[in-house]
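name: query_chain
kind: protein
chains: 1
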Amino acid sequence: MVGTTTGTEELSNLFQPIDTGILFTVLLIILFSYFLSRLLTILLAKLSEIVGKHRIKVKILIPIVKLGIYGIAVYYILIKVLQFSGQQFLVFGGLFGAALGFGLKDLFSDYVGGIMIILETPYQVGDKIKMGEYYGEVNDIGLRATKLITPDDSFVSVPNGLIFGQSVASANKGTSEMMVVIDLYIAGESDAGHAMKILREAVVSSKYVYISKDRPVVLLHKAFPFYTRLRAKAYVNDLRDEFKFESDVSTRAWVEFRKSNIQAPQLKLLEYSPEIKDP
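structure:
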């Protein structure tokens, strides 16, 4: 029939030689999108440090802005520059899907994972998360990988595809406050009641603690055969103070423990008696 186009003709049109000027335009769009994304990421990161308490709210915008820039770039290249028709777009999608089946499955999984993370926000930039064996503060969410800063200041790039097979735990879920759990262990014969009072005082007097109606301080203790575990659950105002808070409370509590003759657990060894013969 006249006026109709077959899939074979669309496939042939898809692979027609592309003008050099069009290729140059596509390259310029890609480079412009990349540098614009980098520039806005840097500006938003610096702005987040200026606004203080609202730092995480500003950082949340970074992956959204990046996704928007790249999405507009892809649309402009395919529809405006290359002028794909609806049929050609479907053919291109089919070829892209076939390519995935020949070795790009993991890479595609990472990109789909990145889009899902941005849209569903199981975690956000600025969160402290544990994904599989990795733990740290989310520094950036890219389309392919999430970048974490670990407690020892190492940068770790975690593939976004892990979200499909690994559990993800967020310690603060988009807020600057975060719960910190501090465990201290004392000898079983020590005065646990007095030790609890010392630990509470160390927690509430710390310069890093954040206490409110919704963020209370909780203390627990549990006796074991040879020792007692004291546990404090409290919040820090800024999640980056997690380890400073833990160190501050532990150090000051142990200073007071020693003054009150509250001892650390001692290793119990059975004494050997020659009267007891080995079997």
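note: The chain has two domains: 1-174, 178-259.
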